[in-house]
Amino acid sequence: MECHCTIGYKFRRQFESDYGIDAHIEIRLAEQYPTGKLIGVQVKTDRSDCTEAKDHYNFTSDYTHLNYWLNHSLPVIVVHYDTQKDLLNWVQVSEDKITRNDKSWSIKIPKTNIIDNSCKSQFVKIAENVNVQARKYNILHESLVLMEHIQQGHKVCIEYQDWVNKTYAIRALEINIYSDDEELLDSVEWPFDVFPHANLEEGLSKMFPWAAFENDFTEDDEDDDLKYEYMDEFGISGENYIDWDDYSIWKEQRISSSENLRPYQNVAEEADFYKIKVSLNELGQSFLTLNKYLDSLNDFIR
Fold this sequence. Notes:
Elements: E1 10-13, E2 23-29, E3 33-45, E4 50-52, E5 56-61, H1 63-70, E6 76-82, E7 87-92, E8 98-100, E9 105-110, H2 120-128, H3 132-142, H4 144-151, E10 155-163, E11 171-178, E12 184-192, H5 200-207, E13 211-215, H6 225-234, H7 244-256, E14 265-267, E15 271-280, H8 282-295
Parallel strand pairs: 3-6
Antiparallel strand pairs: 1-2, 2-3, 4-5, 5-9, 6-7, 8-9, 10-11, 10-15, 11-12, 13-15, 14-15
């Protein structure tokens, strides 16, 4: 089989005889750094063992192959190759997608599952070869060092700039860790694409489900627009009528509210600058307790 479709991952054909695995896909970072994470691939060309329906291909096989794939050390995908359209469709072989009969089984290969750049993130998850619960644990564990800094009393801040007129621009979070006297202890760059949701807090919560967020403004950072928001909210016609003590209380609540994460500065109406203090929510505190247990010795573990 020769196909000209590529997504930047390494595709290795099986030249030696192998029962039910035609090739391996290896996940690569930045399309050049190998990760060692593999997916087993079974390729079917045109209508070999497949029948075409309106929105999928129906692949049928025997239980010998099914048992082999389900018990394989690698996750396995079945790929249908349309030689006329030079198009690849795929599906992961998993118990929840299988229809069983007396002597055979079948699985649907959706026509919407096309091997192109849109499937790369799905292949990364498949190659991890873990269930949803394990992936969620891994997300928490990746941030363990940040949680421990917060637990030790250090201040952890997410600092980044949002190019507001470039919706799909690739950006990066800078996560800075400060001591009690605001000395910078460490800095980590946390890459990400545009937030999956328009709401800032919701996007951050997807990335850091263990955290709560609030603005971290200094006096110099505070936006003068707050004063006018206060006047509009309370119907105050001019600065001379402002109760400054009341305004100070309102302003403190306003800028620290997690529902009102806002930039402390905008440059030329192009870039918003954020500094967001991170604290532990209930999940973060519980995860630290769980991690302490997992790291402890237990004589009763068999």
